Amino acid sequence: MSTLFNQEAGPQPPREVRSAIEVLSLLKNIQQRHDPLTITFTDRTQRFQSFIVKIDTDSKQLWLDEMIPREGDRYAAMGESFRLETWIDGVHIRWQCPGAQTVMLDDAPAYRAAVPQEMIYHQKRGAFRAAVRRSLDVGIGIVHAKRAVSLTGSIMDISATGCKARVAGDCSHQLPPGDEFELSYLQLPDNGRSTLTLEVRHANYEAAIDETHIGLRFKQPSPLVQRQIDRFVNFLQREARRLEKDDLF
User: Fold this and answer.
1) Who contacts 174 (Cβ-Cβ below 8 Å, separation ≥6)?
2) CA 4, CA 239: separation in Å to the nearest integer?
3) Which stretch of DSSP H or E encloses residue 28?
4) Sheet with strand 101-105: strands edge to edge
5) How large is the average pLDDT for residues 149-157?
6) CATH topology classification for 129-242
7) What tens digit of pLDDT does each residue of 82-105 get?
8) Which residue range or ranges hold the PilZ domain (predicted)?
9) pLDDT, tens digit, for every residue of 112-124?
10) In this structure, are strands 37-41 and 47-50 parallel, antiparallel, or unpaired?
11) 3-state secondary structure of 75
């Protein structure tokens, strides 16, 4: 059985996430998914587990559940600094906490800490390229900043690092490999228009269907746009796995 997605590229280098919006988005995602956090106290080798149980965006604080094993509660109560890390769909996320305060939350012990100002976002596995159904109607605009080239089309498949698009007619002569289109955009579901730079990898005219198929690389997208792309790719991966599982029964 052919799969709808496959590995496209190797691991990506770590990214420092400093935008307050992006940091809160990552934390809320971890909380909503109920992903376990691995906690390591500075100068100690033992590892502990906890969960984010509450986030206050106004005060920029978060609350952690009691730790497992319970010995971690003693270190936290002593005000020791620690590192938190977790995994989301092959992405390693980690940050430092200078210390937490012991509090009661809904009549249960918890630990309150400041929302981090910086998180490390590290995609350690290859990027997956996922097919995009025509019914999703995921649009793309390929727009050059200096040349009078402005093309619109739809995405055929997408990964965290690039995509393949279709545009009506023969426009391959306008898309030399290596050229960058700085005013381009993606029209992803539920995200509106996301502006980014696209680099052309290849462009081939398919005469039988009168379409130009274009391989594109995302060129240093903003952290916000990258997160939108990652979420959409993860959605497509889950859908592909669900469809493949359904085909087995």
Assistant:
1) 147, 149, 151
2) 10
3) helix 20-33
4) 52-56, 61-64, 108-114, 101-105
5) 94
6) Thrombin, subunit H (2.40.10)
7) 999 988 766 789 999 999 998 988
8) 125-234
9) 999 999 999 887 6
10) antiparallel
11) helix
Ranges in the chain annotated CATH 2.40.10.220: 129-242
> How far apart, in whole angstroms, are the C-alpha atoms of residue 238 and residue 128?
12
CA angle 85, 86, 92 (to 5 degrees): 90
Q: Which tokens hold the place of 30?
A: 């971890």
Kindly state the tokens that stand for 123: 């995609």
| Average pLDDT, integer, range 142-161 | 92
Instruction: Classify residue 92 as exposed, middle or buried by CB count within 10 Å of its CB (0-12, 13-18, 19+).
Output: middle
| Phi, psi torsion values for 188, nearest 5 degrees | -85, 150
- pTM of the predicted protein model: 0.51
Give CATH 2.30.110.10 domain extents, the chain: 15-123
Say how far apart CA 99 and CA 75 lie, in whole Å. 10
The CATH-assigned architecture of domain 15-123 is Roll (2.30)
User: What gap in Å lies between CA 21 and CA 24, rounded to an integer?
Assistant: 5
Show the tokens assigned to 25.
Answer: 């988005």
Q: What residue type is assigned to position 210 of the chain?
A: D
Q: Please state, in angstroms and as integers, the Cα–Cα distance from residue 13 to each residue in 51, 114, 122, 207, 219, following that order.
A: 26, 26, 6, 39, 14
